[in-house]
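Design request, tokens follow.
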């Protein structure tokens, strides 16, 4: 049996004894970490389909080409997303560095030495002995840890799961970014529609102001009617600067999300456009779909798996480590004999290293790893619980916001009818201007509320897509 064969026999025998004495390191649990089962289904509603999960690029269903282009620019330029990509590369480098422990470490050393001794260092001179000596050597050595008990394997697995978690974090940033751009765009269009409503009312209020002035000039109305009409007219005009400021600020917010300066967006986004279509039947799937659809849940699960592997590595530290060490090289005093067979040197050194006592360091390291594992499991369950809450809230908000839009549309119709009737009666002198004044204020308030409710409905729809994990998820 050769030297290498005896080494493997030695290692196998020792490993068998240790396994019988200590037992193998337990494999980590790859199952679910939920403390309680998810609900089987959401509360039934005709607006939602519970069979299929939401598909990616949901914003295209809103039918707004401008929004599509904004999200494309944001995906290419957003700094938060680029930073998430940098974190993926960092985690990948750490993982590859940990995988290097699978391979032996190889070193090469070479040197040459020439030395002359002093003739005056000894009182007796020895004939035939040279005072000059020289020595040359070259050596190739290797050190390889044999991972019998999974210490390296578990550490690599831990870093691999963290790397996968950073990929899920990237997907989570992508989902959030698409939803944030869409929400900011919806708010911009809401402000613009309210601005248009104010302009329309300014025009109608100016016409009514002209009517009061004509009636006052003909003695059919008092100065009070003119003053009240002017107060409503100028009050509506005074709301325009605030709306303009809100529009500009919203364009600035969108520019930050897109990673560009506002000057490049203002010429395009300043042009008013309708609020994107918000009436949709959404495929939300069933609650269990969140486990594979939402990136934050998948990232939390990867983190649990990483800490589970770290705990396994900490257990492995209690067991011995096996090393295969060896070297081969040449050494000679005379360079002419350097590559001579007699100048060959080698060493094979199978080594068992078992740290039997190190205070409480390994025990506390294992306890800390277990505590981190328990903490990550609780965070995972909290993430799942929060996800279910967010979906439920978004579904409820979207449903009731749609009902509010339907009711406000009827309110606006009745308000406009009231204004028309009160103005007609006022022209004929059958009612006071106060009724017209109240109707003017009410219609403006109703229409603003309707526009705001339409924007909120779209925001709830976007929030629903986001909460179920819909977005531009990378593979």
């Amino acid at each position: 049996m050769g030297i290498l064969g005896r080494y493997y026999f030695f290692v196998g025998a020792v490993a068998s004894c240790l396994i019988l004495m200590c037992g193998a390191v337990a494999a980590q649990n790859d199952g679910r970490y939920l403390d309680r089962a998810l609900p089987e289904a959401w509360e039934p509603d005709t607006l939602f389909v519970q069979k299929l999960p939401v598909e990616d690029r949901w914003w295209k269903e809103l039918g707004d080409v401008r929004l599509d282009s904004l999200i494309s620019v944001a995906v290419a330029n957003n700094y938060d997303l680029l930073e998430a990509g940098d974190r993926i590369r960092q985690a990948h480098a750490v993982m590859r560095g940990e995988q290097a422990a699978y391979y032996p470490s190889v070193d090469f050393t070479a040197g040459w030495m020439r030395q002359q001794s002093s003739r005056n260092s000894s009182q007796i001179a020895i004939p035939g002995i040279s005072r000059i000596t020289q020595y040359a050597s070259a050596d190739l050595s290797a050190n390889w840890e044999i991972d019998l008990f999974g210490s390296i394997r578990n550490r690599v697995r831990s870093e691999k799961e963290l790397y996968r978690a950073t990929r899920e974090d990237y997907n989570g940033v992508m989902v959030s970014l698409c939803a944030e751009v869409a929400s900011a765009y919806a708010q911009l269009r809401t402000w613009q529609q309210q601005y248009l409503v104010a302009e329309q009312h300014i025009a109608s209020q100016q016409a009514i102001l002209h009517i009061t002035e004509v009636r006052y000039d003909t003695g059919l109305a008092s100065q009070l009617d003119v003053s009240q009409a002017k107060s409503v007219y100028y009050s509506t005009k005074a709301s325009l600067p605030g709306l303009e400021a809100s529009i500009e600020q919203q364009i600035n917010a969108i520019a930050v999300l897109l990673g560009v300066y506002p000057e490049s967006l203002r010429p395009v986004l300043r042009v008013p456009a309708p609020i994107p279509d918000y009436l949709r039947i959404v495929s939300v799937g069933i609650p269990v779909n969140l486990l594979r659809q939402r990136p934050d849940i998948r990232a939390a699960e990867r983190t649990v798996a990483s800490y589970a592997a770290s705990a396994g590595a900490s257990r492995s530290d209690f067991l011995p480590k096996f090393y295969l060490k060896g070297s081969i090289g040449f050494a000679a005093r005379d360079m002419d004999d350097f590559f001579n067979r007699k100048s060959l040197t080698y060493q094979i050194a199978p080594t068992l290293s078992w740290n039997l006592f190190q205070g409480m360091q390994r025990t506390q390291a294992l306890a800390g790893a277990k505590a981190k594992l328990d903490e990550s499991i609780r965070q995972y369950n909290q993430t799942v619980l929060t996800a279910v809450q967010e979906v439920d809230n978004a579904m409820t908000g979207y449903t009731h916001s749609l009902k509010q839009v339907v009711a406000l549309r009827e309110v606006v119709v009745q308000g406009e009818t009231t204004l028309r009737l009160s103005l007609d009666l006022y022209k004929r002198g059958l009612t006071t201007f106060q009724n017209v004044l109240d109707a003017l204020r009410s219609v403006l308030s109703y229409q603003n509320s309707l526009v705001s409710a339409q924007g909120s409905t779209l925001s709830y729809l976007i929030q629903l897509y986001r909460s179920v994990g819909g977005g531009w998820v990378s593979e």
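Comment from the thread starter after seeing the answer: thanks! The beta strands are 48-49, 105-116, 132-146, 282-283, 321-332, 344-353.
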